[in-house]
Amino acid sequence: MTEDLETPRKPRVGELTFDEPRRRKPPRHLADLTAAERREAVVALGLPAFRADQVSRHYFTRLSNDPSEWSDVPAAQRDQIATELTPALMSPVRELTCDEGMTRKTVWRLFDGALVESVLMRYPGRVTMCVSSQAGCGMNCPFCATGQAGLTRNMSTAEIVEQVVAGARTIASGVVPGGPARVSNVVFMGMGEPMANYKSVVGAVRRLVEKSPGGLGMSARGITVSTVGLVPRMHELATEGLPVTLALSLHAPDDELRDTLVPVNTRWKVTEVLDAAWDYARITGRRVSIEYALIKDVNDQAWRAELLAKRLRGKLVHVNLIPLNPTPGSKWTASRPEDEREFVRRLEAGGVAVTVRDTRGREIDGACGQLAAAE
Ligand code: SAH
């Protein structure tokens, strides 16, 4: 019976029109709003403006969204403010842990049933949260699990921020071996193409870097936004005054192969996407990360390493090689160790800084490109 109450009513035939949004929007949350907008929202409730800062501090600094803990807010006002500004945005469906408890993946159900995943990773001296920016993804890269099911919808700013706050709560609670700590890094490398949900993603980055009570007070240097290479959005991001690290998922140095591995390449070619990356580096002063998943006998040939080195030489750039995490049913696998070594050697010989990414979270399908939220 209770199930029935939660099942949305089926629309009548002809009820939906093209200008009506098909889906309801995620609930509005204080993390969607600037500090000034939060004050306005509180005043609209007939409450003093400073309550907005108090509640923001509870959410971002004390990581509390439980009104019963807001002892500086009169009890009679707590539920009213909570309903208005800290509605529940997501609930955990599944938690999976590996790497001796140092990697934790959470599958979240959003208000409309959409599923997304986030991954908390503890390293010596740093804690990284990998977050989703869309439920699903429309970019259709054939080697990526998220790409296979297509795009469900964009996430709101607060839904993105909430993943980081949830991770911050977990790592602060001490359940992860190594004792309580803070989230130092956020990577937009979960489900979705961040640049295809630009406004919400930039809003989320602002909340992450804003000082208390506006936001989490993180350093922009610890934040990485990863993209398939939506060139106009890369140019726009460079002008936001947010010196985040830009990661470009290149995966091939030549258009012929990149057209198939990253289909959006048919719209913006390798030269164009690299120019946008250099533009980003010039404007922000930040070194760009080039992501390159090494796929056996597909993109791991020595000549491609040389071509890649030639295209990157002399630039403010770092290459991140990711051994392919095979997705279910995929015909592709990770490169042979000797081919990987040779690829690294040719890049280094070409004067390009390179590291091979670890494969954290593999056993729980929480590694790069494995997030699929199949429930
Ligand atoms: N849409 C963004 C962020 C998504 S994932 C982007 O494409 O950049 C983050 C990184 O994981 C991207 O570089 C993506 O290409 C890579 N990736 C996707 N599937 C992978 C897989 N199966 N193995 C290794 N890396 C993968």
Automatic annotation (TrEMBL):
<dbReference type="GO" id="GO:0070475">
    <property type="term" value="P:rRNA base methylation"/>
</dbReference>
<dbReference type="GO" id="GO:0005737">
    <property type="term" value="C:cytoplasm"/>
</dbReference>
<dbReference type="InterPro" id="IPR006638">
    <property type="entry name" value="Elp3/MiaA/NifB-like_rSAM"/>
</dbReference>
<keyword id="KW-1015">Disulfide bond</keyword>
<dbReference type="InterPro" id="IPR007197">
    <property type="entry name" value="rSAM"/>
</dbReference>
<feature type="compositionally biased region" description="Basic and acidic residues">
    <location>
        <begin position="1"/>
        <end position="13"/>
    </location>
</feature>
<keyword id="KW-0808">Transferase</keyword>
<feature type="region of interest" description="Disordered">
    <location>
        <begin position="1"/>
        <end position="29"/>
    </location>
</feature>
<keyword id="KW-0949">S-adenosyl-L-methionine</keyword>
<dbReference type="InterPro" id="IPR058240">
    <property type="entry name" value="rSAM_sf"/>
</dbReference>
<dbReference type="InterPro" id="IPR004383">
    <property type="entry name" value="rRNA_lsu_MTrfase_RlmN/Cfr"/>
</dbReference>
<keyword id="KW-0004">4Fe-4S</keyword>
<keyword id="KW-0963">Cytoplasm</keyword>
<keyword id="KW-0489">Methyltransferase</keyword>
<dbReference type="InterPro" id="IPR027492">
    <property type="entry name" value="RNA_MTrfase_RlmN"/>
</dbReference>
<dbReference type="Pfam" id="PF04055">
    <property type="entry name" value="Radical_SAM"/>
</dbReference>
<protein>
    <submittedName>
        <fullName>Unannotated protein</fullName>
    </submittedName>
</protein>
<dbReference type="GO" id="GO:0030488">
    <property type="term" value="P:tRNA methylation"/>
</dbReference>
<dbReference type="GO" id="GO:0008173">
    <property type="term" value="F:RNA methyltransferase activity"/>
</dbReference>
<dbReference type="GO" id="GO:0046872">
    <property type="term" value="F:metal ion binding"/>
</dbReference>
<keyword id="KW-0408">Iron</keyword>
<dbReference type="InterPro" id="IPR013785">
    <property type="entry name" value="Aldolase_TIM"/>
</dbReference>
<keyword id="KW-0411">Iron-sulfur</keyword>
<dbReference type="InterPro" id="IPR040072">
    <property type="entry name" value="Methyltransferase_A"/>
</dbReference>
<keyword id="KW-0698">rRNA processing</keyword>
<dbReference type="GO" id="GO:0051539">
    <property type="term" value="F:4 iron, 4 sulfur cluster binding"/>
</dbReference>
<keyword id="KW-0479">Metal-binding</keyword>
<feature type="domain" description="Radical SAM core">
    <location>
        <begin position="123"/>
        <end position="363"/>
    </location>
</feature>
